[in-house]
Amino acid sequence: MVATVEGRYAPAFHPVHALLLGGALSLILGTLLADIAYARTYEIQWINFAAWLNVGGLVFAAAALVCALLGLVPSRRTRGSALHCLLWAVAWILALLNALVHARDAWAAMPMALVLSVLVFAVALVSIFFAAWPLRAGGVR
């Protein structure tokens, strides 16, 4: 008789954490798209939109960072949770620097703001990949 093991996946993170990550990522993407729009059109309102979207992304990202820190509790810890928490903290710090750059004049902010927006989005996307890294029940991948 052959024993079969069911390959169930355990949830990678809490649903509230997923909601906060999705909100932060969408606002960070909006910041990037607004910076691209400003770089192409030089319409000053786009840099204002990017600054506000970045602040909203910082708020959601800070709450998601708290959830990521709570995910480091040994009973809930997964293989990618420490890397997710570290990368998400790096993304939050880069977004904070991006907010400081966006506080400058529109002409003075442009090259650095776009570069920081791309970096924040890339690091946040990689961090979310490690947060959603599925594990089988029992820790087997």
From TrEMBL:
Xref: Pfam families: DUF2231 (PF09990)
Record flagged with keyword Transmembrane: yes
Domain DUF2231: 14-129
Spans traversing the lipid bilayer: 18-39, 51-73, 85-103, 109-133
Tree of life domain: Bacteria
Keywords: Membrane, Transmembrane, Transmembrane helix
UniProt entry tagged with the keyword Manganese: no
InterPro entries: DUF2231_TM
Official protein name in the record: DUF2231 domain-containing protein
